[in-house]
Amino acid sequence: MLVTKVDTPADANPQETTEWLEALDGVVEEGGAERASYLLERLVDRAAIYGIESPHKLNTPYVNTIPVEEEEPYPGDRAIERRIKSLIRWNAMAMVVRANKYDAGIGGHIATYASLATLQEVGHNHFFHGRYDDQPGDFVYFQGHASPGTYARAYLEGRLTEKHLENFRHELREHPGLSSYPHPWLMPDFWQFPTVSMGLGPINSIYQARFMRYLENRGSIPQTPRKIWAFVGDGESDEPETLGAITLASRERLDNLIFVVNCNLQRLDGPVRGNGQIITELEAAFRGAGWNVIKVVWGASWDDLLARDTTGLLVKRMGEAVDGEYQAFKARDGAYVRKEFFGKYPELLKLVEHMTDEEIFALRRGGHDPQKVYNAYKRAVEHTGSPTVILAKTIKGYGMGEAGEGRMVTHQQKKMNEKEMVYFSKRFDVPVTEETAHTGSFFKPPEDSPEMKYIRERRDAMGGSLPARNVPKITIQAPPVVTFAESLAGSQGREVSTTMAFVRVLTLLLKDHELGKYIVPIIPDEARTFGMESLFRQYGIYASRGQLYKPVDAENFLFYKETRDGQIIEEGITEAGSMASFTAAGTAYANYGVPMIPFFTYYSMFGFQRIGDLIWAFADSRGKGFLMGGTGGRTTLSGEGLQHQDGHSLVLSSTVPTCHNYDPAYAYEVAVIIQDGIRRMYQEMEDRFYYLMIYNENYAQPPMPEGTTEGILRGIYRFKQAESGKAKIQLFGSGPILNEALRAQKILAEKYQVPSDVWSVTSYNELRRDALEVERWNRLHPAEPERKPYLLDALNGVEGPIVASTDYMKVVADQIAPWLPGRLTALGTDGFGRSENREHLRKHFENGAEAIAAAALSRLARDGKFDKKRAQAAIAELGLDSESPDPVTK
Q1: CB neighbours of residue 654 within 10 Å
Q2: Would you call 564 helix, strand, or coil by DSSP?
């Protein structure tokens, strides 16, 4: 088919134009497309010399990218594959309809898989490899709302039972059910990748593809032909995470990555681009970003019409109709399509005059044609040098008829009446009786049927079923804590920050003979901020092409060194991208069988607040690793101000069930927590990850007191007792504010003769979780002796009120208040940050030593254990203003 554009400007010399076009035709016939492309590039270069601007066209005509004459025959049995696909369609639909029939409002989606079935089934039968010999197979990020279809296929494969399907969205019944969407946490042997909420699948798949190359280039895994497939909804492209990282994929030449965008033209409420064409828009975006773009717009039933269209009007009409119209074409009937689509031009009406309205309505879109889809997939798999995106045009609710095919409400459609069920069964030739159709019963052919044999044959040929999450046995051992002896010994009076203490721990891990190769440092362009530039030269920054330039600091000892087998992942200014790399590394133990241990170090303010959704998905993925919240603390990070000073990430992180957050004050605490974290995550294989606050305030690091390991890990230990007399009050401190508590202890003793103990609270959240667990056990076992939480064990025999101060919001310390009734006063940094130094910030937020001492005296006065007038005077003596506005509102 020769596509001719008919709406070009008036031609001043038609004969000359014809000669040029015929010359191009001759080049294509003799030298092929590659030669023609080369000549066109040279012409553009020559035009530039004359100052002629060449038109930049990122779009091609609204037709299939692969011409009919270049298509290869379909390798499978089309008839039997259609029967299998129809059974999967039926069971997927019946699963949702039954669930809502017997449990109204339980939810589910029919229309997405209805549009996706062919795209997914061609992949399962011919492209998705379960394994490559002894190596893991392809990774597939399935479109989340199409999960009923994936379950329905697993049912035919024998991996799920009818009971599973009956319990779709019933996960807490007697028989195990099926989760609503892809959730590895809920179905750890089935799903690999969580893909709901929208946008997370695309960005995670991009960085997964890059991390695969990282592992290959570092020799951690052998090179294989495995691919990463990401099924993406066209409406999902509005999420910034979907398109925000596509240039990374082309820059890294990730030809192991294939996006399949299901362009069914409709999102939840209406058209994705009612007044435009989403395929055209996405083609320009991906082509401009350097991707290989393959459009699958029209099915084979259009081939004859396109071949007979000598005027170019059919292609013109295809390109000018907007998606709102295309949606209507499939929601109405053939007569409507004849009138509204072909009827715009008399020549097109003549083109289809031999066709009935039914035949016109049956003209199929490309994403529903196995032949077109197969050729697109084959071209994508064979392509090298860049990632591929397949833009496949489909119909949302395909085959649902009046129940929702191409209609505005189809995404939310969860019910179908008896008539609609019968229509669906007949539409796809599902061998069920009308009575069975009315009840929505599942259908599975006998095991010796041709369909079941074919399924087994194809799965054996492809190396197994997908999705499947198979975690191999991990045998690494955590290094003994003495590995970090210098951290445990303190800094011998030198003033260093906990950030630098962490960098030293990280360096020791990188040097470890057994563990070093598994460590993955991830940094979003802040290595120098965290003092990590010393790692550049020794371990190298990963760059898939190596270093093609001489760095400007090449003469320096610690120069910026990029290398193909570099160990450090320097992401640039992207916390989302860094988190996606952290996700790929933190799940490598399951996906690759390689226990990579990622350390993602970043500005703490730009973590949970900015990329909380990705972190939640990481937990869902059963990810492991360490998030290191650098430049932590609302008063410790001086000068930076409101947008940078973090006073609440410990609150946000506490909401993630598998995240264990810590706020260590000293180097030995950092070392103990990291060592035990590696032990629990990789040696004991616990599904957890860690969030550690690290700070940039320099102070002397003390040696580790004896007998404090358990307290460090469980959340609290007494750091320093009162020097004279029994303590009247207890001072809790965390992070750098522990030093403020120590200074407050001295103020109280020297100026007000009030003895106090100082405690290091490394994790209020760990204390709270332990207390809640004990509380629940006690509630459910009233006949058993009552257990005590660790917090109360640690404070056994300790009297007096408690003043707890952190560099975070008061609610951090308040987490343990229920178990200390009437005893706890929390100080923190509620409110917006300010551009100031630490002294003024701590005075403003009232969490420094003077505020701690004043709070202690005030509390003792309220309890009748200190003179009230003297306590009031002390507030002024300590430099606090009793009438100052609350920092929250100031």
Answers
A1: 22
A2: coil
Dump pLDDT digits (tens) for 481-505: 999 999 999 999 999 999 999 999 9
Amino acid at 157: E
- Asked if 93 and 344 count as a contact pair (C-beta separation under 8 A), the reply is no
What H or E segment, with its residue span, contains residue 744? helix 737-752
Pairing mode, strands 729-733 and 716-720: unpaired
Q: What is the pLDDT of residues 11-70, one digit of tens each?
A: 899 999 999 999 999 999 999 988 998 998 899 899 889 998 877 789 999 999 999 999
Q: Which of 102, 88, 86 is nearest to 414 (CA)?
A: 102
Structure tokens at 573: 């200014």
Distance from C-alpha of 166 to C-alpha of 881, rounded to nearest angstrom? 66
CB proximity list for 426: less than 8 A, separation 6 or greater: none
Instruction: Provide the 8-state DSSP code for 592.
Output: T
Question: What is the crossing angle of helices 838-845 and 849-862, to 10°?
Answer: 20
CA distance 126 to 74: 10
Tokens at residue 155, please? 């049912």
d(CA 399, CA 420): 10
CA-nearest of 270, 203, 886 to 581 is 203
Taking the CA atoms of residue 203, residue 204, residue 207 and residue 208 in that order, the dihedral angle to the nearest 10 degrees is -150
Residue written as token pair 């102070």? 699
Measured at the alpha carbon of residue 315, what is the angle toward residues 73 and 17, in degrees to the nearest 5? 105
Which residues, 6+ apart, have CB-to-CB distance to 873 below 8 Å? none
Which of 666, 677, 667 is closest to 713 using CA atoms? Answer: 677
Count of beta carbons in the 10 Å neighbourhood of residue 796: 8
Q: Which helix (H) or strand (E) holds 668?
A: helix 667-678
User: The dihedral of CA 481, 483, 487, 491: what is its sign?
Assistant: positive
> What is the 8-class DSSP label of residue 8?
P
Radius of gyration of the chain (CA): 32
Coil, helix or strand for 296? strand
- Picking from 641, 659, 642, the residue whose alpha carbon sits closest to that of residue 650 is 659
Q: What is the dihedral of CA 517, 523, 526, 527, to 10 degrees?
A: 0
Q: How far apart are CA 101 and CA 91, in angstroms?
A: 15
Residue 110's alpha-carbon distances to 394, 410, 663, in angstroms, are 14, 8, 46
Q: How far apart are CA 658 and CA 474, in angstroms?
A: 20
pLDDT tier at 400 (50, 70, 90 boundaries)? confident
- Cβ-contact 362, 301 below 8 angstroms: yes
pLDDT at 5 over 50: no
User: Residue 339: phi, psi to the nearest 5?
Assistant: -75, -50
Nearby residues of 747 by Cβ (< 8 Å), 6 or more positions away:
849, 850, 853, 878
Helix, strand, coil fractions of the chain, as percent rounded to 5 = 45, 10, 45
Q: What ranges in 519-637 are assigned the alpha helix state H?
A: 534-539, 575-586, 588-591, 608-620
Q: Residue 348: what residue type?
A: L
Question: What are 630's strand-pairing partners?
Answer: 603
- pTM confidence score: 0.94
Residue type (1 letter), 623: G
Neighbours of 222 (CB within 10 A): 11
Give the dihedral of Cα atoms 543, 549, 555, 556; nearest 10 deg: -30
Q: Is 298 exposed, middle or buried (0-12, 13-18, 19+ CB in 10 A)?
A: buried
Give the confidence band of 3 by pLDDT, cuts at 50, 70, 90. Answer: very low
Q: CA 233, 236, 240: angle at the middle one, nearest 5? A: 145
| 691/466 Cα distance (integer angstroms) | 32
Pairing of strands 388-393, 519-523: unpaired
| Helix ranges (DSSP H) in 50-161 | 78-102, 111-126, 147-157
CA distances to 47, 267, 284, 328, 396 from 270, in Å:
45, 6, 23, 12, 11
